[in-house]
Amino acid sequence: MPEPFSLYVHVPYCRHVCPYCDFNVHAAARPPEEHYTAGLVAELMACGAQEPWGGRRVKTVYLGGGTPSLFSPASIGGIVSAVTRWFGLVDGAEITLEANPGTLSHASLAGYRRAGVNRLSLGAQSFHPRHLQTLGRDHGPDDVRAAVDAAGAVGFENLSLDLIFGVPAETLADWEADLAQAVTLAPAHVSTYALTYESGTPFHAWRARGRLRPVDEDLEAEMGELATARLGSAGYERYEISSYARSGFAARHNLSYWDGSDYLGLGAGAHSFSQEPAPGVRSTNERLPERYLAAVGTTGTAVASVERLTEATARAEFCFTGLRQTVGIDVASFHRRFGTELAAAFPHVSDLIGDGLLDLAAGRLRLTPRGLAFADTVSATFV
Question: How many Å apart are CA 376 and CA 114, to the nearest integer?
Answer without folding.
Answer: 40
